[in-house]
Design brief:
Glycerophosphoryl diester phosphodiesterase; EC 3.1.4.-; 32% helix; hydrolase; GP_PDE_dom; two-stranded antiparallel sheet
């Protein structure tokens, strides 16, 4: 027997509750006419080069409510958009056009000029990555953009309804690959404030120590607490990622999140079930899982009442939502504003 989706009235009630009670969520909710958040993961990674201006344009054209992206710093302390703290050989070619053979120096030791010389417009065809995303269209010459360039792009597109969910990339088990944590957070906040985009942005991270810094420096900016409980990557087990808190010391993950001060939880979608989502509600948490790409998983999670989905396939998610009579985010005519 199929599960029934969360009624629209109940979903809206939850949105109003979270807007009025959760620290830092009032601005998150101000621009959200819909309770369900369609987040394009790294733009639209399954269809276009990840974390590139072209990829974000593709997501806007498909129609998302939020652009999900990742940031690190350059040697000058400028936020740039990259999922990895070092260049990923699966998607990166050097200035001569050759695929990188290994991960090089951390980005925070490279200048903007050195970073801009890297081509991230296609996937290395010999990599597993290429098999995972066979539909991705190559766009040779795409570069790693600065955070400011992404914000400028959305302004030029006049996509005033679109929000940003920015992951602060840092591995606490390899701190040498990242800059000073407070300097990192300050640099990102400076760009958001200069661009007037802080009110349209949430910050997320697996390393909750960065979120604690962000909450202190910008309590008005919503935070999303990422987690993974996979056999090879469990961010709640030792406390290294989760601010010293360990799941073994709590009733369950939602109890740990509540103790950490979370109001928005983004778990790996494989780590949750309907009961755990209900527990999250009891702890006052909104739930937006990552990274959901298959239609049956999208359907199940919507039926369970999640508040949004982070996906490499926003076009698939829109079809699922349309079939359920859910309102869709506007699409954006991106043709006039293409600039690199």
């Amino acid at each position: 027997m199929s599960l029934q989706p969360l009624p629209a009235a109940r979903r809206l009630t939850w949105l109003r509750w979270s807007c009025t009670t959760a620290m830092g969520l009032s601005l998150w909710c101000a621009g959200a006419a819909l309770a369900f958040d369609v987040q394009g993961h790294r733009g639209a990674r399954a269809l276009a080069p990840e974390n590139t201006l072209y990829g974000f344009q593709r997501a806007l054209a498909i129609g998302v409510s939020t652009l999900e992206l990742d940031v690190v710093l350059s040697a000058e302390g400028v936020p740039i958009v990259s999922h990895d703290t070092t260049a990923n050989p699966d998607i990166t070619r050097d200035p001569s056009g050759r695929w990188l053979q290994s991960r090089g120096q951390p980005f925070h030791t490279l200048t903007l000029a050195q970073i801009a010389a890297l081509d991230v417009g296609r996937i290395n065809p010999s990599s597993r990555y290429a098999r995972d995303f066979p539909q991705q269209v190559a766009v040779d010459g795409e570069r790693i953009p600065t955070l400011a360039a992404v914000l400028d792009l959305v302004k030029r597109q006049r996509a005033d309804h679109v929000r940003f969910n920015i992951e602060l990339k840092r591995n606490p088990e390899r701190p040498q690959e990242s800059p000073d944590p407070e300097a990192f957070v300050r640099a990102v906040l400076d760009v958001l404030r200069t661009q007037g985009m802080a009110s349209r942005t949430s910050l997320q991270g697996f390393d909750w120590s960065l979120l604690k810094i962000a909450q202190r420096l910008a309590p008005e900016v919503p935070l999303a607490f990422l987690s993974a409980q996979r056999p090879r990557f469990n961010t709640l087990r030792t406390g290294a990622w989760s601010g010293g808190l360990r799941e073994a010391d709590f009733k369950d993950a939602p109890a740990l999140l509540a103790t950490a001060g979370a109001r928005l939880w983004s778990p790996n979608f494989n780590d949750i079930d309907r009961k755990l989502i209900e527990r999250a509600r009891e702890e006052g948490l909104r739930v937006i899982p990552w990274t959901v790409n298959e239609v049956p998983d999208m359907e199940r999670l919507i039926d369970w009442g999640v508040d949004g989905i982070i996906t490499d396939h926003p076009e698939r998610l829109r079809v699922v939502m349309e079939q359920r009579g859910m309102a869709l985010p506007p699409t954006v005519d991106t043709a006039p504003a293409r600039q690199n």
